[in-house]
Amino acid sequence: MLKTNLRIKFRQRGFQYILIAAIFLNLIFLPDRDAGYNTLLVDDYTGFYNSAFIGLTTAVLTVFFMSLFGFYLLSGLIIEDYNTEVGQVIATTSVNDKEYILGKFISNFVILMVIDLIIICTAVIVQLVRGEYLKIELGKIVLPHLIYVIPAFIFFSALTILFELLFRSRPSFGNISYFFIWMISIPISFDSSFDLLGYHGYEVYIRNNFSSLYENSIILGTGDLPATFVEYPGIIFNISMIIPPLVLFILTGIILNSSIKYFDRFSLSERKMELKINDYNRRLAEYKIKYQRIISIFKRNKKSTDEIQTNNEIGLAEPEYSISKVIKTSKTITLDNIKIEFKQLVGTISYKWKLFYLILLSISFIDSSILSSIGMIVWLIPIVKLSKIGIQERLNSIEELVFSTPNLLKKQFLSMFVSALLFVMMATSPFLLNLILFRPIGIIGWIISSIFLVSSALVLNMIANNEKLFTIIYLIVWYLGPANQLNWIDFTFIQDYMLTLRYSIFAFLSILLIIFGIFLRKRQIDNAYP
Amino acid sequence: MDIVINDVSKVYKEGTKALSNFSLELSPGIIGLLGPNGAGKSTLMRILSTIQKQTSGTITADGINISKDPDYLRSNLGYLPQYFGIYPNLTANEFLTYLAVLKGIDKQSAKDKIDELLVFLNLDHAKNKKLKEFSGGMKQRVGIAQALLNDPKVLIVDEPTAGLDPVERRRFTNLLTELSEDKLIILSSHIVSDIESTATDIAIINKGMNVVKDTPEALLSKVKGMVYKTIIQSHELSDFRKNHVITSTYRKAEGVEVRYLTSNPIADDIAVVPNLEEAYIYLIRGD
Ligand SMILES: Nc1ncnc2c1ncn2[C@@H]1O[C@H](COP(=O)(O)OP(=O)(O)OP(=O)(O)O)[C@@H](O)[C@H]1O
Ligand SMILES: [Mg+2]
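Predict the joint structure of the above. Result:
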């Protein structure tokens, strides 16, 4: 099983992309000195590119990024199992639950470590390329990875499993919750002695020895160039450094343990479910036999009653039937197409959501000061549904039914797009209400934002062929843009709403995305089954 | 509608040759596709349903190349795949409406047709239930219903009776017979009796090749006088199996009654009337 897991993941495109991204990031985070920015900057101090500094930088960045992307890379294995025959084999207890979970855990860890190994190799090459210190001290490059990356990876390998089990029926919610947990927990370790990334120790070292300004420190940024370079000697041990890995190990143990317990229950309940269905079928069959008997007695047809008792072929007293053949077809897109696509996309909206929506709607009457908070919340709502558009057939293994219908692209693309757009507009309507009341000029932005969001979801989903790429990119954009006021990527125009070139850029991008989306959809329909 | 399959091959990416130089001409009626696991039945049916592309060769429907213009066939097609999913959060009624809309069926006829099919397939009581609550056999019947929505001229059904109980299976085979008047129905199954009771023609496919296509009667005549019956003791069975192709065994008080295929029977064994399963076994073995 371990081998199969690894083979599946290594072959996956996601894995290859992340590997390329990791190498690329290595180059970005160990920039050329003329690049105009520096990394691991404390006030204006940063390290020369010696092995110790390069080892530390790559470790910090590996933990920082892989704790996020690693999750999206690893999640899905258990669910895949449950959707394939492997799951049935497991469900019928050929592998015990403990072995299964531990197997997943180990394969997760191996995958992450392969990535880290490649990052370390690139680090060596980058040190030589930058050429400030040609002496490669492998120990100093590897040490930060041993101290920070390995405990973190062990922890994340387990955490992924727990998330997958907890959110197995709603993986999109898992994806989103994980992002928020990451967003909150990682920055905390920057500033505390609970040093998960190795950054805090470095910062303290620089402060104690060089800088006394205590102004700012950033892991990536322009800072005040030119920076002052210092020779970073490498990690200096102190006893408190043992605490974070220790805590992580204990947490890992707890997580694995509860995963095994939880998994056990969940496979058991699944098995019970199976029994229930069989039971239901049996009762249905019994009911039918009884029913048939009554009918045949009513018809005083003794012969068929006997046959029913002796064998199971009870279709003897069959109703007269005939299937009608009048079918009218229409070739144009109608309102029905949109309605039914909407239904398919959105399903039934639960009371919780309706209530939440009403609350948002009533808040939006207050005044313009709450605009940005409402905006931030409201633009998060559509993410789960949007992460499915364009790939809904694949997600539900329904390609063969849908893609064998005539003129699909022509008939469906527009209604799919419009229904998703309607949904986004509905979900963000409290924000619109606030705009209408207090900032009407923003309405144009709202329309462009909605169209841009739908078209990018469509394209990203179809490129990745899964829900994750859009989800993660969207969350990052949301975090940087609307939440942190990085205005040039804020497609929601919450903060910076003046009519500027940005409107036209996003509108233009949307058009490009739609055209690309049509192309991707056509390709998808034509190559439904390789 | 007539379909002509001409010299079609399909090689999968991993190198499996699922179909090799397969040719077949089909015209209205029920064609039963028989073949062992992995013979290439589903591959052939997917290609015919325009869901998959052949590596080489051509297929025409009424003279129109289906690779170049798939929509002509698609407009007249009903397809039930061997494995398929559903939208779990839609009800049976909504799901069928969804597919009806995609098939371009006008609203009112879709509604009438769906009502009719749901009653007919015994799903009427569950039509407003979410599909995720459906049992395997119920899902299969939803699949059958969607294939019939547009009153297709070509109906392709891949192991349609899998997961159905005997009653539903019988209803379905009866339905096929009723529908077959003016339609081309292509049906694959592992259950020879299902095909026996419906098919007007049988095509046997093995290792991606077309072994034979003929009427059931013609196939039966190929094994006429080649099936024999004898009674042996239980302990002789494994030896007997080594030397003969056994097609069936019945335990009886005086021993085991075996039917076997042979061209030179043992002395005084009795020739019996062969059944289709025996014809199938004979033809698949290729001797
Ligand atoms: N998606 C695929 N990728 C690679 N190989 C495939 C794929 N689908 C089928 N094959 C291979 O092609 C061959 C034919 O498979 P196919 O499913 O057409 O057989 P079948 O006759 O329908 O079998 P069954 O009776 O089990 O349904 C098999 O060897 C199978 O392993
Ligand atoms: Mg098959």
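The CA atoms of residues 106 and 157 of chain A lie 8 Å apart.
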